[in-house]
């Protein structure tokens, strides 16, 4: 029988008292399941077990009233029950995710909970979830064919939910949530001659917006969402700089990734192309977006992807996504020997760890840095001269 003594907090007196809790999962003939969790009316365990058997019989006969199974319906005892994972997930989304995260992140948390976490953990009380339960879910998700990155993001959502439960006093400690090991990040980029072929192909597009967009991506390393949300008010052509203040993704306009606004210097070629683009737009539309469709509307993700695929095909290059042009910008900076710290600032990485993937592209810098080991220590000559001078004095005095 699943009847047990539990300590609960009396909301009126704030004192802890023991209750008998009926808590079990009933499986119907069709395979569906239902969690029954309620405070027993009886004060003795044997009577509470009899009450549980009565509930099971009523479930089998179909006479069990739904309101009897509502987990928080304990007004007669005025006690505060610890919620199930499914119940607490609603609190987590409403009070933690929505006020603190971007809308896209809120949507992802809802998706992780609905698809990956709650199917196996939702019926469990949050203080009953153990490390082994979390490990089982992680192993199941990895075995299902999900990428390690997706599983890691789902586990990150679960970890945040447990931490929030501790912060607000629902549980005392969290189970350990181990993240799956991710393979080393890999990336692709266009070589110098390939990027020039891409730009030449973009010039042949009927709409000059695409040549400007491809050049901007290659020369600034901006993310696709940042680029197609760029406003003319963020572009300072006389000063040759652009401020990345916002991004657009999945229908939402938000701050850039990591909430980091950054300023990027523009090359002379980029300034000239943007000037030409602005002159063309002023004559035909009044839209503050820099990159727009011919009718002045926002460029959708699918439209942008199709345009880049078309340009790659014309240039006889492999089909890539816009994010690969960001990798190309960073790779070219590294190959020209620019410091990784500068590349980090241009790309807007929150940590240098993300930027280190480009370090292997600047071997000449490493070789030059290692050459310094062959040089004499700057103070070496002076020290030897001082020693020889001192020795000479000592010899003279001795003589």
What does this molecule look like?
This protein is an alpha+beta fold. It has four domains: 3-80, no CATH class; 85-167, Orthogonal Bundle (DNA polymerase, domain 1), CATH 1.10.150; 192-361, hpI Integrase, Chain A (Orthogonal Bundle); 370-399. The chain is 49% helix and 11% strand. The chain has helices at 45-61, 85-100, 103-121, 131-143, 148-167, 192-203, 209-220, 224-227, 268-282, 301-314, 322-335, 340-347, 352-355, 363-371, 380-398; strands spanning 3-10, 16-27, 33-39, 79-80, 235-236, 241-244, 247-249, 252-254, 262-265. It has a four-stranded antiparallel beta sheet, covered by helices on one side. Strands 5-6-9 form a three-stranded antiparallel beta sheet, with no helix packed on it. Strands 7-8 form a two-stranded antiparallel sheet. Helix 2 (85-100) packs antiparallel against helix 3 (103-121) and helix 6 packs antiparallel against helix 7 (209-220). The N and C termini lie far apart (106 Å).
Radius of gyration: 32 Å
- Count of structural domains: 4
CATH class of the largest domain: Mainly Alpha
| Number of helices, where a helix is a run of at least 4 consecutive DSSP H or I residues | 15
Percentage of residues in helical conformation: 40-55%
Number of strands: 9
For the record, what is the CATH homologous superfamily label of the largest domain? Intergrase catalytic core
Low-pLDDT segments: 66-80, 383-399
- Order of neighbouring strands in the sheet with most strands: 3-2-1-4
